[in-house]
Fold:
Amino acid sequence: MAYRIYLSSPHMGGREMHYIEQAFAGNWIAPLGENVDAFEAETAARVGRAHGVAVSAGTHAIHLALKLLAVEAGDTVFCSALTFAGSCNAICYERARPVFIDCDETTWNMSPVALRAALRRAAAEGRLPRAVIIVDLYGQSADYDALIPLCREYGVPVIEDAAEALGAALRGRPCGSFGELAVLSFNGNKIITTSGGGMLLTGDSGQAAKARFWATQARDPAPWYEHTEIGYNYRLSNVLAGIGRGQLLCLEERLAQKKAIHARYAAGLRDVPAALMTAPAGFDSAYWLSVLRLELAATRARPADIIAALAERGIEARHVWKPMHMQPVFADAPFYPHAEEPDGTAARLFAAGLCLPSDTKMTAGEQQEVIDIIRACF
Ligand SMILES: *Cc1c(COP(=O)(O)O)cnc(C)c1O
Structure:
């Protein structure tokens, strides 16, 4: 469906074509080249990591992170329950088993209470997970100050899924810098885009080299194509990395726009029976999407009603991610709730939440129209 106002659509800054033309001029129409090297270095520097490995999707970056942590068939991997399937599908690529961890209401991200319960049980059973994938949801950092010490206590490495949170920070530390490895996405709807793409971030040059090796078909150094391992064709094209370099130049402007969008919703919706997902003190959200949580007991309006009312006027809104432990494909996966509720806090946020149009090309006038339609639903 074509909308007049989108949730979050690609927004070019103007310099992208310059870098694409450079790739054409040098005939570097390949998954290697100057744009890839520069895009990796510039992105890694922005989040304070030593190394970035540009790949063709955030999902592929997660896959490589799991391989670097030696995830194998039969292992378990913990993952945030309230997220997009891209966070956890790669666990299954390696025939490992996902275990989903609930979120809490303050951060919407992984609950330290649920994580502690899951780690305790896993330790008692002698089956600690090989890794914990912690998501920074909708642009907001998870509470790493609570989560990382827990993982350290049990000796389990963390993968930060910062696909939605480039530009966010927790107490001054950028998202993408937490955990042993982190992942970004440059899919078309993300804060900046390469049309499709992702990046693996690490502080370890050996990990970066190994990830590049696997991502380019695991070609051993030899005069012919020699392989001792199974590889993948995961590298980002030098043309698309050119889009990424141009996009990085307008990242700060996009972040300011996302913040302004969130502030206008906060002002325009302050007196309806609903609350915007808002960064707690010390959290600096990228506000990739502005998310509204309805007070279901105080209104008859439901997320589906508001989504339908907006769609009728050509405006895109969406339900909050349906939690992974509620997905048919993961019906058999264990789930650890934050409190004693079968489907946890994540299920309640799913039932009450909707993602509002957060497109940086949306004008203040258009956003006022969105606000007016939402207000009329109550
Ligand atoms: C978009 C996204 C991914 C996957 O990224 P792709 O580039 O689309 O493969 C992973 N995790 C989260 C939380 C995402 O939003």
In short: The domain at 251-377 is CATH 3.90.1150.10 (Aspartate Aminotransferase, domain 1). The pocket of pyridoxal-5'-phosphate is lined by residues 57-59, 83-84, 86-87, 135, 161, 163-164, 185, 187, 198 (CB under 6 Å). The chain has a mean pLDDT of 97. The chain has two domains: 16-248, 251-377.
